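Write out the 3D structure for:
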Amino acid sequence: MLLVFVIFMVVPHITFCFQGISLAQSTAMKVKIGQKAPDFTLKSLDGTEITLSDYFGKKVVMLEFWATWCNICKKEIPNLVKNYNDFKDRGFVILGITLQSGEDAEIQEVVNEHGIPYPILIDDKLTVATKVYGLAGPIPLKVIIGADGVVKYSHVGDYPPGEDEVPFVVEDLIQEIAAGQ
């Protein structure tokens, strides 16, 4: 009986821990791939109001939900900066949405340390994360939205070393803009 308990109760949880990224992707947020991305307006770290729909029809947008207390989030910032710099002149923008739990100075310190060139938006009441996008899982969460305003891709957590799907997804979506689709 104990063996049956271990097989049916413990093994799935161990598997979930090691494969949590792929399993969590389908339940990380209520907005799903293929749905119109819900619009929002947030203030950036520099005080500018940024509205998601202002980019629709013009750019591929990646929402990056992260926090200063999340070590995985901070670890992946150099790769995000590289992706942003590689594609920004071709119609790509990253909007870093910070799930704030402290002062703006903490966020600014991370921005300065990593030289983050893209807008950092402050979701201090977690409204966009939890109410608008229904984020219910771990972070970081990447959501890529096509120029048509439709969610095309999402990924929870980091990538294994040397792997990153973002450039491939972004390249395809930029090609769609160029083709007029």
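Confidence is low (pLDDT under 50) at residues 1-27.
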